[in-house]
Amino acid sequence: MRLRLVGAAAALAIVAAACSGGAATPGPGTPSVVVSYPILGAVVADLVGDRADVTVLMGNGVDPHDWSPSAKDIERVEKADLVVVNGLNLEEGLAKPLEEAEKRGVVVFRATDHVTIRQRAAGEAGGDAEAGGDPHFWVDPLAMRDVVLALEPVLAGVGIDVADRASSLEARLADLDAATRATLAVVPEARRLLVTGHESMGYFADRYGFRLVGAVVPGLTSQGEVAAGQLADLRAAIEAEGVTVIFTEIGTPSAVVEAIGRETGAAVVELPSHTLPADGSYFTFIGQIATAIASALR
Ligand SMILES: [Zn+2]
Q: Hey, is 197 helix, strand or coil?
């Protein structure tokens, strides 16, 4: 145990030196938490404060559906005290390294084990081919609160006591939910329709009373194939439902979304659903999504 701690401390120094954008240089014995993607990383960093060193593997602006870990990422996972990932196949390339790390005693926390997984409606694109559920819980602040609630005792288990910070963060996430609801209040019932780049906004739609009409890339990942027949169905749905806005996301093929916009007359609006804003705050992230939707659909 003692040896492992020494090794972890040495690894932290390397990580800190290599990662100029990371947290403050940890002191000796500061526990190391590795998080897979920036949005979840922002919440974990908010939760732990300076009580742990948080390293995020994916760069901000990287499409999480199109990411695979580098050798250095795998090394960071192996040397962490705790690894926090999304789960539900978001980090497919990390599955094996995580299993190996777990065997060696690294604690792995999968956020989607702790939220109510959204069930896709019958007839939605992808259907049974994407069994396992929707990974995009991060667009719902109350699902994120459930994750914080579940993560706090796991952090305590690896020696990071954040009970006080967890209560405060949970309260702020509840406030964020209320603020989001207030921002969206300007959107009339009849216009609460979402067409997005891929099917990323299901948790948001369920939480705030929107309906998913369709997606440019049908399915739960930006990396799905776009078949001509499905695009025809999407155009028909946009016209039938009177959808006026298509929200484009990271990984959405821009030529395709622009063509659909031209053909249907719908405006194309960027939705930053997979990228952290410049200030690195989850609260700003949700605020930007809510504002983008409210301004486009009001
Ligand atoms: Zn996505």
A: strand
146: three-class secondary structure by DSSP? helix
Check if the beta carbon of residue 249 is closer than 8 Å to that of residue 294: no
Find the helix packing angle between 228-241 and 254-264, rounded to 10°. 40
Span from the CA of 3 to the centroid of ligand 1 (angstroms): 40
Please name the residues in contact with 37: beta carbons below 8 A apart, sequence gap of 6 or more.
56, 57, 58, 62, 64, 67, 86, 90, 91
Query: Rounded mean pLDDT of 152-179?
Result: 98
User: What are the distances in angstroms from CA 129 to CA 38, 105, 121, 230?
Assistant: 28, 34, 13, 15
The alpha carbon of 135 and the centre of ligand 1 are apart by a number of angstroms equal to: 8
Selected residue with higher pLDDT from 2 and 259 = 259
Angle at 140 between CA 158 and CA 288, to 5 degrees: 110
* DSSP 8-state assignment for residue 189: G
**pTM score over 0.90:** no
Q: Give the span between the Cα atoms of 52 and 291, in whole angstroms.
A: 33
Give distance in angstroms: CA of 134 to centre of ligand 1: 9
